[in-house]
Every structure is written in structure tokens, then in C-alpha cells.
Design brief:
The protein is an alpha+beta fold. It contains six helices and seven strands, in the order αββαααβββαββα. The strands form two sheets. It has a five-stranded antiparallel beta sheet with strand order 2-1-5-4-3. A two-stranded antiparallel sheet has the order 6-7.
Length: about 170
Amino acid sequence: IIQRKWTEEALRESEERFRRLSEATFEAIAIHDKGKILDANQAFAEMFGYELSEVIGMNVLDLAAPESRDHVMKNILSGHEEPYEAIGLRKDGTPFVGELCGKAIPYDGRMVRVTAIRDITERKRAEEALRKSEEKYRSIVELAPDGIITVDMKGVITSVNTAFSKWTGYS
């Protein structure tokens, strides 16, 4: 009886440590069994716009945009553990880009999956804005009537525009 009580206390302490860690993280974390959510942290519920009590028991595919569902389920079933991107859906239907990373863990005597999700919508917007800005810069430089060269810190030419090539005869 004493051994069982110690074991139960150790389990409670372990679960409490896990709960404190999961609540302290900036990422959304969910534990699920083949997509059925068994547990999640508050950040998970908030990311998707639900109360924590609402997400427990949900299928994770209900939180993915239709175009991402097959990709998410394939990664769950295959045990994929590398980060990947998928489109999530908030309760109000608003989509967002998420970076997901899952891993198999023992839970209540069986192997389940813990998945961490980070909302990377703003990062993706910034990357797209940077890409467009770089395209615009390249167009301006390429179409400029004057010769333009780029030189690195060691004095090595790294690029030239068409006008420079015509002017010097070098490609």
C-alpha cells in the first residue's frame, strides 16, 4: 500500500511538473491519440480561440484548414517528427499558418503524440514582403541605364547589371 501511494504521489508530481512546463511555454501544446485531443495547454486553446474544456476530445483535423488535413493526418500516422507547416483554423474560421512538430510519448500506458504548434503567420508575411522588396530591387537595378556592381567587404564583385556588362564587355 505504501509503495502504491508513493507511486501515485510521484505520478501526481510528474503530472504537475508537466502541467507547469506546458503552461509556461509560448507554444501551443496538445497530447492526442491518432488525432483525438487528450490534453492541451492554455496556449493551445487560446491559439485556436476555444476554451480549454472545448478542445479536449476534439479531433485535431477539425482545427486544420481543409487543404492541410491530409498533410497533417499523414504526419500523425507516419510518426513524422520534423517541423512542418500547415494552415490552422480558429473557432471563428480565421486561418493562420502554423509550424507543427510532433513526437510520440508514453501516456496513460500507451504511446500517443505530443504536438507543439507555433503561429508563424507574421513571420510568413514578413518573408513575403522581403521577397517582394528584393524582386523590386532586382528589377530596378537590372533596368537602370547606368552600370551597377555589388562588391563584398573583401572587394570581390558579387553581381553586375546588364548596363555594366554592356559597358565593360564582361558578363
